[in-house]
Amino acid sequence: MVAGPPDDAQRANQYRPKTLELTFSDGTTCWQLPVKDVGTVQTLELPKAIATQQIRIAVTDVYPPDSDAPVDVYAITEVWVMARPR
How far, in Å, CA of 2 to CA of 82, rounded? Predict the structure, then answer.
């Protein structure tokens, strides 16, 4: 995933995702995953494999803007969901 704009000059003025909450279609599994404050691709590994048909991704915490003129937005630029080999 890429958290926020990768090379945007306004990155420091924006909120950036710090924690994601993943909720799965089984209705009981929910994980909190930390996100690094970088504008490059990062891999978030799940604690264990789970069979699911849907994943709900919510941003539950953010890094605050580094400037005195913050932009009231946050962005997740890309998310790739990849299955583990069986």
Answer: 15
Rounded to whole angstroms, the Cα distance separating 63 from 14 reads 9
- Separation in Å, CA 12 to CA 7, 16, 74: 10, 9, 11
| 3-state SS class at 22 | strand
pLDDT, one tens digit per residue, over 13-68 is 888 899 999 999 988 899 999 999 888 888 888 888 888 889 999 999 998 888 77
| SS3 sequence of 39-64 | CCCCCCCCCCCCCCCCEEEEEEEEEC
Q: What is the pLDDT of residue 6?
A: 64
